Amino acid sequence: MAKQPDGPVTIRSAALERFAADLFARAGMTPADARIVAAVLVWANLRGVDSHGVTRIPRYLELIRLGDMNPRPALAIAQETAATVLLDADRAAGPIAMTMAADYALRKARDAGIGLALVRATTHTAALGYYTARVAEAGMAGLAISASWPTMAYHGTRAAGVATNPISIAAPGGAGGPVVLDMGTGIVSLGKLVQARRAGQPIPAGWALDADGNPTTDPARAQIPLPLGGPKGAGLALMIELVTSLIVGNPVLAETLEGTDTGKRHRQNGAVIAIDIARFTDVAAFGREVERLARALKALPRDPAVAEILMPGERGHRTRAQRTSAGIPLPAPVLKELDALATELGAAPLASR
Q1: 114 forms bridges with which residues in the sheet?
Q2: Which CATH number belongs to the domain containing residue 299 in this structure?
Q3: Cβ-Cβ contacts under 8 Å for 61 (sequence gap 6 or more)
Q4: Does 7 map to a domain?
Q5: How far apart are CA 198 and CA 51, in angstroms?
Q6: Domain range holding 94?
Q7: Among residues of the chain, what percentage have pLDDT more than 90?
Q8: Cα separation values, 157 from 84, 193, 234, 300, Å
């Protein structure tokens, strides 16, 4: 672990992963499940998506204490066909359920050409790019979506009506690795608002509303993210609820908006799709065409305000290489919060690892 004067603390990814797994195991997860959750969170940190990395640990532990996240879930297959599976997650941590879903989708795609794994009743699914990258690294195209309770304004309203439901699409690439799009349907994720609040950094105008539905740039007041592209982001978030939550018979948004007892608990649903590219074209040729298209796009006239033309996931690939070598920077407030949780659970703090 290294620390710059007045700067973040830099920690090796392996040490951070062991630390996270230790906390989750002490909170009741099996060692195997704890390692999966830790790996998914640290993967996000490695790629620079810190809003979905270990900063989520306090919230996950809180969900366990509240009984919303089940540390010892009994995941089960509720329905299954040649190309589909419905996984009842029993309130498992999202990384556990979605990793299992990705593996089922891959298995189905190998047999049927395409595989769909629906996930019912999980919790925060973390960075969806982890699961689609898992599919792409197996030589297939992947798509993942997840639906949560209302956190984002629906276009035209001044209150939370939909979630910043994310979508990720990934495909095998050439020498540069998979192309991975991972985006939320909000202008900003709730996690980034929390990060800004912790750091005391003002947020740009147009990002969020306060609790009364008024626009704000004050991170301490920002509560409700605005949808990306107005009606486009709001509509996409709504449709993700329809094709996940409603399809699996576990509605989230309406339950919360109507104030039912079920709607007061944290819940998510999700889906992972895998498409076997080899059924339709040569996988190596597909990768070469991805590289060809990337070259053509990068050769286009560049906006002077843009430093470089990037493909989806390219910045994350670079950040991962840099952070794998140099370590993951953690802001001092995040380190302090994590070490306090470690002390509470009887684990060694990060500072000693």
Answers
A1: 275
A2: 3.30.1370.60
A3: 23, 24, 27, 341
A4: no
A5: 12
A6: 74-186+227-324
A7: 90
A8: 36, 20, 10, 39
289 φ/ψ sector (left φ>0, alpha ψ -120 to 50, else beta): alpha
Q: What separation in angstroms does the CA of 222 have from each of 37, 53, 210, 214? A: 28, 21, 5, 9
Evaluate whether residue 43 is within a structural domain. no
pLDDT digits (tens, 9 = 90+) for 124-163: 999 999 999 999 999 999 999 999 999 999 999 999 999 9
Task: Confirm whether pTM is higher than 0.85.
Answer: yes
The pLDDT of residue 4 is 52
Query: pLDDT, tens digit, for every residue of 49-106?
Result: 999 999 999 999 999 999 999 999 999 999 999 999 999 999 999 999 999 999 999 9
Q: How many domains does the chain have?
A: 1
| Strand (E) or helix (H) holding 23 | helix 13-26
Distance of alpha carbon 203 from alpha carbon 197, whole angstroms: 9
Q: Give the pLDDT band of residue 351 (cuts 50, 70, 90).
A: confident
Compute the residue count for the chain.
353
CA distance 94 to 171: 22
CA-based Rg of the chain, rounded to a whole angstrom? 20
Residue 21 placed within a domain: no
